[in-house]
Design brief:
about 130 residues; mainly beta; four-stranded antiparallel beta sheet; 11 strands
């Protein structure tokens, strides 16, 4: 069983930065394609960013492109989401999701992922 755990959320002013972290306990993250989703209050969960199992391929939602960067450190068994120039509309609970696959095609739908964390809250004040 894989347990996905996120950390790094918090309160930040608009224009500020945060880095979210995601790891998997129970096994190596190295064969898992990983994505970040988010869910704002009263909204459905939406795709944010994806990184392939090797880290060679990334994909972003248009709303975060140029501001967010997803990366992975295989040696540390970690996936990160660096969020810069944060806006109030980025306020949400952020979820890390993982799936065991070698495809580099980005998965942007929730059903494509087998393992989910509990989420970490990000609040951006104006």
């Amino acid at each position: 069983q894989v347990e996905v755990v996120e950390s790094g959320g918090g309160l930040v002013q608009a224009g500020g930065s945060l880095r979210l972290s995601c790891t998997a306990s129970g096994r190596s993250f190295s064969r898992f394609a990983t994505a970040w989703f988010r869910q704002a209050p009263g909204e459905e969960r939406e795709f944010v960013a994806h990184i392939s199992w090797s880290g060679a391929s990334t994909h972003y939602a248009d709303s975060v492109k140029g501001r967010f960067t997803i990366s992975r450190d295989i040696a540390k068994n970690m996936v990160y989401l660096q969020m810069n120039n944060l806006k109030p509309e980025d306020t949400a609970v952020y979820y890390c999701a993982a799936r065991l696959t070698y495809t580099v095609v980005a998965g942007t739908e929730e059903y494509e992922y087998d393992y989910w964390g509990q989420g970490t809250r990000v609040t951006v004040s104006s």
